[in-house]
Design a protein that fits this description.
Layout lengths: L2 E6 L5 H10 L4 E6 L11 H18 L6 E4 L2 H12 L6 E3 L4 H7 L4 E6 L1 H5 L1 H10 L4 E6 L2 H12 L4 H11 L7 E4 L8 H8 L4 E3 L2 H11 L14 E4 L11 E2 L3
Parallel strand pairs: 1-2, 1-3, 2-9, 3-4, 5-6, 5-7, 7-8, 9-10
Helix pairs in contact: 1-10, 2-3
Bound molecules: D-glutamic acid.
D-glutamic acid (DGL) binds next to helix 3.
């Protein structure tokens, strides 16, 4: 029975988790969010690498032998720290990085835009994705921390955030000829409806959720799926907040 641990700074990773759960409904899941340090998009590379190292140590100590796969469901953490943390564990790690490659393939105008956190939109890993997979495209880089906050608010409080999302997107201003927008932060698919209603049909939105679910399914395909030993989703956070929506335990990092 595969046990998959999904990690993000906040609830953004649930947008990836739901794709994986759809592909592998019988697997067991643990979700860990580092909300004590949210937003990751404003942290330095060194801070993120240290934090993720602590996460790996914690997972190894707390869930030793129980976790089959870790999904870093955070573009910021993956682009900054994936190579770094792989040195510290034997557990396979799947990272989530911006869907630049499929976006470049889908684009007809050869103008694509990335909407990510400030950290992801400017870091070296993202630049290398662009030069490797989108050298035939003009790539526009946009970032927003406000959208991360709005996704958190929508998820936890169930509030309508459409006006604030549209306000933020009108400030961001995507180039008119752009035909594909990469949602390069796992919080943003939570706002997919609000984002799509702002741009209408002239812009295709793409994220990494489906591709990650496919990859995870492949990597755990040798594990026996036994529906009878299915456990409920365990949810951990690194700081208290109003968790009335879900049962959340505290995990100190
Ligand atoms: N969900 C995260 C990402 O994919 C980070 C959001 C944040 O903490 O800034 O980049």
């Amino acid at each position: 029975m595969p046990h998959i641990l999904v990690f993000d700074s906040g609830i953004g990773g649930t947008s990836i988790l739901s794709h994986i759960q759809n592909s592998l409904p019988a697997a067991n899941y643990t979700y860990v969010m580092d909300n004590a340090l949210l937003p990751y998009g404003l942290q330095s590379e060194e801070t993120i690498q240290n934090r993720l190292t602590r996460l790996i140590n914690k997972v190894t100590a707390k869930f030793f032998g129980e976790v089959d796969l870790i999904v870093i469901a955070c573009n910021t953490a993956s682009t900054y720290a994936l190579a770094h943390i792989r040195q510290f564990t034997q557990i396979p790690i799947v990272g989530v990085v911006p869907a630049i490659k499929p976006a470049a393939q889908m684009s007809r105008s050869k103008r694509i835009a990335l909407l990510a956190t400030p950290a992801t939109s400017k870091n070296k890993y993202t630049q290398s994705l662009v030069s490797e997979f989108a050298s035939d495209c003009q790539v526009y880089f946009h970032h927003s921390t406000e959208l991360v906050k709005l996704a958190e608010r929508k998820f936890w409080l169930g509030e309508s955030v459409i006006e604030q999302v549209h306000q933020e997107l009108s400030v961001i201003g995507v180039n008119n000829l752009t035909d594909v927008l990469v949602l390069g932060c796992t919080h943003f698919p939570i706002l997919a409806e609000e984002i799509a209603s702002f741009y209408g049909s002239k812009l295709m939105l793409i994220d990494s959720g489906a591709a990650i679910a496919k990859r995870v399914s492949f990597l755990v395909s040798n594990k026996i799926i036994n529906e009878e030993s299915k456990k409920p989703l365990q949810f951990f956070a690194t700081a208290m907040c109003d968790f009335s929506k879900l049962e959340v335990k505290i995990l100190e990092l």
